């Protein structure tokens, strides 16, 4: 059974259709990369999945249960979904450790000692063991983004959403964040990533989806999408962004 | 100097970058001397012009035809020392009024600001009430409110309604300042970038938890300087309670002035208010400067 099932999802902003009948299934442990031009609807789709936006039509199921039903408590859904944003969105008034343990303690009612132990383990695993007591603005962009990833996975979500998590970073810092995502894939984390890093998408994705004007135009293995795209729009997009094909 | 410096510099250049030591260059020494010289010159110009203005004002005032009379009625040392103990005792009541009112103002202001931030349509009546309250009470001059509350509430002859003028005065101040402070809190809450809320909500924090752990701590830090500003003026406005009769500083000064036909007691009261507000104003400046530095310095957060 699929972990996430998106069926015919539509989203409009002020009369303009941003998502037009998106269908997408994500299996457990699968990594899906969303690619497409700016404004094609990648972020909007992710925001619909964690219910930051309400869909205008269609349904989304998580673990077989519909989450777009009006009777569903969004907080119960979000407990099972982790999100990492382009601009990190760390809480600037809290230390790294407090950023990470806030949701485990206040939402999941994990005792402080246990939450801090897990945070410490994750920090150590991603090379930030000595940064637990720092405030976010004392860290480099790459470090902040790694903390944001740790914060998102500290509650052991079923699904992790990552929205262009490297676009705010210097090229030299991109690698360290991508390394973290690679490691997460190795642990079997199910992920949906919106990304402009084509090399990375090719390397990490099980499935690549090409969005164009709110339509999921083409999907397939990275091999297929990057070497033999079927749709002319996909070909055009890739040749523009990769400068070849 | 250069002769001596040269060998050291060669040495440091060949050393590994992390052990390289800095020897101040000839040019930097000259540059710093020039900067010091310029600072000294501007300081002396500023001091001289300030003194000139002050002396002119003093000379103009003391040379004015009415000065001897003014000195007698406003600057009488005997009237001053006579009134000071009573005025000071009254001033302690001002401080008490101020402190008690401040606590209630903060609570009321925060509640009203939070109610205005509730988005669910269920809360529409509450929200409307909060808007009505801020609109009305920000519009009424504080002195008018002191009269209305101070004479209006006792006139109603309600069972259990406060009749003590100090309590009534505090209620009036709380109602008036609560509306201002609510707006200050609201602007602080609005100044927190929506992405902070999005991050908190996607961690499954509820609306209340998002406010409590993420939005409010940041908002409150930002509004401390404007809040202190409001409290400087609250300190002064504690004197408005005098209209209702309690023997606070202004009332004491009035009593002394009326019995001696000398206005020096007012000066004593004024000095006491200044003694309290000046440190507070300096603290506000200091905190505002610190907030500004933080905002400029803290890049990379959204
Ligand atoms: N809150 C909003 N209000 C109005 N329009 C919006 C809103 N959010 C997104 N849009 C519009 O929806 C469209 C899709 O935006 P979205 O952010 O999903 O694109 P994207 O694929 O993530 O682009 P990018 O690669 O630039 O991040 C855009 O045309 C955008 O202007
Ligand atoms: Mg986007």
TrEMBL record, chain A:
SUPFAM superfamilies: P-loop containing nucleoside triphosphate hydrolases (SSF52540). PROSITE patterns: ABC_TRANSPORTER_1, ABC_TRANSPORTER_2. Pfam families: ABC_tran (PF00005). The keyword ATP-binding applies. It is found in: Cell membrane. Keywords: Amino-acid transport, ATP-binding, Cell membrane, Membrane, Nucleotide-binding, Transport. InterPro entries: AAA+_ATPase, ABC_ATPase_HisP-typ, ABC_transporter-like_ATP-bd, ABC_transporter-like_CS, MetN_ABC_transporter-like, P-loop_NTPase. It is a peripheral membrane protein. Residues 4-238 form the ABC transporter domain. One of its GO terms (molecular function) is ATP hydrolysis activity. GO terms for cellular component: plasma membrane. Its main location: membrane. Belongs to the ABC transporter superfamily. This is Peptide ABC transporter ATP-binding protein.
Automatic annotation (TrEMBL), chain B:
GO terms for cellular component: ATP-binding cassette (ABC) transporter complex. Residues 91-284 form the ABC transmembrane type-1 domain. InterPro entries: AA_ABC_transptr_permease_3TM, ArtM/GltK/GlnP/TcyL/YhdX-like, MetI-like, MetI-like_sf. The keyword Protein transport does not apply. Belongs to the binding-protein-dependent transport system permease family. HisMQ subfamily. NCBIfam families: HEQRo_perm_3TM. This is ABC transporter permease. It comes from Sphaerimonospora thailandensis.
């Amino acid at each position: 059974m699929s972990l996430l099932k998106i069926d015919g999802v539509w989203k409009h902003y002020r009369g303009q259709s941003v998502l037009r009948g998106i269908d997408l299934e994500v299996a457990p442990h699968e990594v899906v990369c969303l690619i497409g031009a700016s404004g094609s609807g990648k972020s909007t789709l992710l925001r619909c999945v964690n219910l930051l936006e309400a869909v205008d039509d269609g349904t989304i199921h998580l673990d077989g249960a519909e989450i777009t039903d009006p009777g569903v408590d969004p907080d119960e859904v979000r407990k099972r979904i982790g999100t990492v944003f382009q601009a990190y969105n760390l809480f600037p008034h809290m230390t790294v450790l407090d950023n990470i343990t806030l949701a485990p303690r206040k939402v999941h009612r994990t005792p402080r000692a246990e939450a801090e132990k897990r945070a410490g383990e994750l920090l150590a695993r991603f090379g930030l063991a000595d940064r637990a007591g720092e405030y976010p603005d004392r860290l480099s962009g790459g470090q902040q983004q790694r903390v944001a990833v740790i914060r998102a996975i500290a509650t052991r979500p079923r699904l992790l959403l990552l929205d262009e998590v490297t676009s705010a970073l210097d090229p030299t810092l991109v690698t360290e964040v991508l390394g973290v995502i690679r490691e997460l894939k190795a642990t079997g984390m199910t992920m949906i990533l919106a990304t402009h890093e084509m090399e990375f998408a090719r390397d990490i994705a099980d499935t690549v989806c090409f969005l164009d004007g709110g339509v999921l135009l083409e999907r397939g293995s990275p091999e297929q999408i990057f070497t033999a795209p079927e749709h002319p729009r996909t070909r055009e997009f890739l040749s523009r962004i990769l400068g070849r094909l | 100097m250069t002769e001596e410096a040269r060998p050291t510099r060669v040495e440091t250049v060949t050393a590994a970058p992390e052990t390289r030591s800095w020897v101040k260059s000839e040019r930097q020494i000259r540059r710093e001397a020039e900067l010091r010289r310029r600072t000294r010159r501007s300081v002396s110009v500023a001091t001289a012009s300030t003194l000139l203005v002050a002396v002119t004002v003093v000379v103009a005032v003391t040379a004015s035809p009415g000065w001897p009379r003014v000195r007698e009625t406003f600057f009488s040392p005997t009237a001053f020392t006579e009134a000071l103990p009573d005025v000071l005792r009254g001033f302690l009541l001002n401080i008490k009024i101020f402190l008690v009112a401040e606590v209630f103002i903060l609570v009321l202001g925060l509640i009203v600001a939070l109610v205005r931030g509730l988005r669910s349509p269920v809360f529409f009546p509450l929200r409307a009430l909060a808007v009505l309250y801020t609109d009305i009470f920000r519009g009424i001059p504080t002195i008018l409110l002191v009269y209305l509350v101070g004479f209006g509430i006792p006139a109603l002859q309600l069972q259990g309604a406060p009749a003590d003028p100090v309590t009534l005065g505090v209620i009036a101040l709380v109602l008036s300042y609560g509306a201002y402070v609510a707006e200050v809190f609201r602007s602080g809450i609005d100044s927190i970038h929506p992405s902070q809320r999005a991050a908190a909500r996607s961690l499954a924090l509820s609306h209340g938890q998002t406010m409590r752990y993420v939005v409010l701590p940041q908002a409150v830090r930002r509004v401390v300087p404007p809040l202190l500003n409001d409290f400087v003026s609250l300190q002064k406005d504690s004197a408005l309670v005098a209209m209702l009769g309690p023997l606070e500083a202004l009332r004491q000064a009035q009593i002394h002035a009326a019995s001696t036909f000398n206005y020096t007691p007012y000066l004593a009261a004024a000095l006491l208010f200044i003694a309290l507000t000046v440190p507070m104003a300096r603290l506000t400046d200091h905190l505002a400067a610190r907030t500004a530095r933080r905002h400029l310095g803290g890049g990379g957060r959204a």
